[in-house]
Design brief:
Elements lengths: L4 H17 L6 E9 L2 E8 L8 E10 L2 H8 L18 E8 L9 E4 L12 E5 L3 E3 L6 H4 L2 H14 L12 E5 L3 H12 L4 E6 L2 H9 L4 E4 L5 H9 L4 E6 L4 H10 E9 L13 H7 L2 E4 L10 H12 L11 E3 L3 H9 L9 E3 L4
Parallel strand pairs: 8-9, 8-11, 9-10, 11-12, 12-13, 14-15
Antiparallel strand pairs: 1-2, 3-4, 3-6, 3-15, 4-5, 5-7
Helix pairs in contact: 2-11, 4-5, 4-10, 7-8
Length: about 350
């Protein structure tokens, strides 16, 4: 019986996992792993080897925790065949190439690793990765700051979908709204200001994150525990609605609010992770009546040439995007389970959590 495309993808994931999991004769390393759904552990694994053309082994220096890692570890969104794989689900990392079968990267190169999440392995001392999922950052890069190019790059790619130079619905009243003030939402806030939105409203459940949004130029901040971003936008626009609303929190209720807060013929950008598999409630009639343009964004790692990630590295290095508010909350590799647990509680005030793997 012929397998489906989905079957082939699962087989590919399993084959990749085996390649990283057991290579006889190699030294051992420490890596975090999702041992089973809802179980994150740090274990010993064999150091992977680059055996195929285009493969690299990267000694990881830093990694960071993404909200989607929480979904993979605790909410059933893990890739089939990746349970027990070293470094999974970490997909934001910076490291040094120590073994190369690539003509594009040499041993000693400092790189941003942006693996497709299903093949991710950044929560490890060493990571096996394809040359097409690596971006050079320069030998003199500040590794703590340039690490943020992965998360920023995903928002840069997404904003180019939400608000393209041609094809968007235009700025009418100069108001944008961002639902969620995690690292992604705060990057969207900065980009909206750079694109010409005079006033940006930001909502979140955490007061510390909202304070960061204020410092980055939010015209109004909304404590979502007691107030509504829909009401705030209505007040700011006289009931007209925002030109652009970006949902960066990942809740069905937030996507409902995004449709309610956008103006007629406005744009809603959906960045937040799905809340679950299957169908989700959605205000289709309201979206229909408003003639809303709705754009989803995902898959930055599959962009040809990884343009957004390259641009993100450059923007951070030249200082045109602020990232310092993401720094300062550090965990060791052995503490990845604790870091992921904290991420389930919206970081308890931290915008981003860094995993200091090498101590460099």
């Amino acid at each position: 019986m012929q397998g489906t495309a989905g079957d082939e993808e699962v087989a590919h994931v399993i084959e990749w996992s085996r390649a990283q999991r057991s290579i006889p004769g190699h030294a051992r390393m420490r890596a975090a792993t999702v041992a089973a759904p809802n179980v994150v552990e740090v274990r010993d694994f064999d150091v992977p080897a680059a055996t195929e053309p285009g493969q690299l082994v990267v000694r990881m220096l830093r990694a960071s925790v993404c909200g989607s890692d929480v979904h993979s570890a605790f909410h059933g969104f893990h890739a089939e065949g990746r349970l027990g794989a070293p470094g999974y689900p970490g997909h934001e990392g910076v490291g040094e190439v120590v073994e190369s079968r690539s003509t594009r990267f040499a041993e000693g190169d400092l790189v941003l690793t942006v693996p497709v999440p299903d093949f991710a392995g950044c929560f490890a001392e060493y990571q096996l990765i394809d040359e097409g999922q690596v971006v050079p950052v320069g030998a003199d890069a500040d590794i703590d700051r340039v690490l943020l190019a992965q998360q920023y790059g995903t928002t840069l790619y997404s904003m180019r979908l939400f608000w393209p130079q041609a094809g968007n619905t235009g700025i009418d009243n100069g108001v944008a709204a961002v639902i969620g003030a995690g690292s992604a939402g705060l990057f969207f806030l900065q980009q909206a200001r750079q694109l010409g939105f005079e006033r940006v409203v930001v909502s979140d459940l955490d007061a510390d994150r909202l304070a960061v949004a204020r410092s980055l130029g939010a015209a109004e901040i909304v404590d979502a525990t007691s107030a509504s971003i829909v009401d705030a936008v209505d007040d700011l626009t006289g009931g007209k609605g925002a030109d652009l609303v970006i949902e960066a929190a990942g809740y069905d209720s937030c996507r409902v609010d995004a449709i309610a807060a956008v103006r007629s013929h406005g744009t809603v950008g959906c960045f937040g992770f799905p809340e679950g598999y299957g169908l989700a409630p959605f205000p289709a009639n309201t979206a229909f009546r408003k003639v809303v343009r709705i754009q989803w964004a995902s898959g930055t790692q599959n962009e040809p040439g990884l343009v957004a990630f390259h641009d993100a590295v450059r923007h951070i290095r030249e200082g045109s995007i602020e990232v310092d508010y993401c720094l300062g909350t550090n965990y060791t590799l052995e503490e990845v389970p604790e870091a992921l647990e904290r991420a389930t509680a919206l970081g308890r005030g931290a915008v981003k959590m860094t995993i200091d793997i090498a101590g460099r």
